[in-house]
Design a protein that fits this description.
single chain, about 350 residues, alpha/beta, 6-stranded mixed sheet, about 45% helix, globular
Length: about 350
């Protein structure tokens, strides 16, 4: 049985387990989806003549020379969209380069599939976002403005309440954003969300806005923008769409002049969309970290250091380029992850 077959079989088993957990917990109600989880949903793909691989320093030591994880077995999980697929492959390739044996299960349902499997003892580790944990798992309504303060609060509370350990986060922050096609933004002198708020109030007829089914009502979505910038987006101009088509719809201006996006999605650059600056920090921070149970971390104390090392140089720009390599240029997540580790000098 090859690696793909093993992944498929394990995925089916975990999905069955998650279905049982949801039934046991009375699942089936409205899902809170407080994370930037649309980066990998398919829309119209734009080909790009540019090389989209991330560039890095390449001056790191080989993982094989820094760590000896021979005899270590890691069951790693990732969610069902591009960014998580890349991060899962990144962790897998790094662990294997350091000598570990890895069983990767990807395509787990967002937002909590991988975490639930980890808490049920079916996985050992998974990448997670601080915003998701703070809002969804720890049930807070108000975010903490400073990203690292929020990380520290999540780390402390999740360990105390759920025995979940958070490794040091990568620096990229994948949060929500609002865009428009660049021609429209330039014609109307729109650069910030404050500009957008003024435009919507003065030109409600042109305020068509494509957004997913939850963004218009969630505390960390449009209501947060309206509160921060002191305006109300007309209900009759909000067009609920599948997330995968929002980018193309916004680029065409049909049916929307504005669109909800995730800030590290490579399609923003590929389609030449203008991402409006959030000067009032309306959107919650989503730093990404590898999480694991405390008992697994104690049994494998080198792992947080390894994950911190491979994530330390992943800025928003680099994560966007990695996502673009898959979503726009059609590369495979495992190839993008391997290329990045090679460029950074972690693997040969």
């Amino acid at each position: 049985m090859d690696r793909t077959q093993r992944r498929h079989g394990r995925l089916l088993a975990l999905l069955a387990l998650l279905a049982l957990l949801a039934t046991a917990c009375g699942g089936g109600g409205a899902q809170q989806a407080a994370e930037p989880e649309g980066a990998g949903e398919t829309g119209d793909i734009v080909s790009s003549p540019q090389a989209s691989g991330a560039t890095g320093g390449g001056d790191n030591e080989l993982l094989s020379e820094t760590y000896d994880l021979s005899g270590t077995n890691v069951r790693f999980g990732s969610k069902d969209y591009t960014e998580q697929l890349i991060l899962g492959e990144l962790a897998t390739a790094a662990l294997e380069a350091a000598g570990a044996s890895v069983d990767l299960t990807d395509q787990l349902p967002s937002p909590a599939g991988a975490r639930e499997a980890m808490l049920a003892g079916e996985l050992d580790a998974t990448w997670e976002y601080t915003g998701t944990a703070w809002i969804n798992y720890l049930k807070h309504e108000d975010p903490i403005a400073d990203p690292m303060e929020q990380f520290e609060a999540v780390k402390e509370e999740d360990l105390a309440e759920n025995n979940v350990f958070w490794s040091p986060p990568a620096p990229f922050d994948d949060t929500y954003g609002i865009t428009a096609r660049s021609e429209f933004a330039e014609e109307n002198n729109l650069e910030t969300l404050e500009d957008v708020a003024t435009f919507v109030e003065e030109n409600p007829g042109q305020a068509t806005f494509c957004l997913d089914s939850t963004f218009g009502s969630r505390d960390d979505g449009l209501p947060a923008v309206e509160e921060a910038y002191g305006f109300t987006w007309p209900d009759d101009k909000q067009i609920v769409s599948d997330f995968g088509v929002i980018y193309d719809s916004t680029d065409k201006g049909d049916p929307c002049n504005f669109g909800e996006v995730f800030t590290t999605d490579g399609r923003i650059e590929a389609l030449d969309l203008t991402l409006f600056e959030d000067t009032q920090n309306a959107f919650i921070s989503y730093l990404s970290s590898v999480t694991m149970t405390k008992s697994f971390e104690e049994a494998n104390p080198e792992l947080p250091e390894l994950f911190e090392a491979i994530g330390a140089d992943i800025t928003e720009e680099i994560m966007t380029r990695l996502n673009r390599s898959v979503d726009v240029d059609g590369e495979f997540p495992e190839d993008v992850a391997a290329q990045y580790l090679q460029e950074q000098g972690f693997i040969e």
